[in-house]
Amino acid sequence: MTTEASPALWVGTFHGHHRGAKVVATATRTDSAPLPYGWECSCGIGQRFPTEDGIFDSAWRHT
């Protein structure tokens, strides 16, 4: 659900491992950001994109 208080729209999650530790990368769209599409991993790394092209491939490769 998207509200004015929370402009991010959940898009998807990717589960994987980094050196044996479980991680989750969450892809989102934030309309108020200059680069609205992106993903952030529970390891602290993330990436932003101007369009949704490549967001899922990038998050999947990271995890």
TrEMBL record:
Name of the protein: Uncharacterized protein
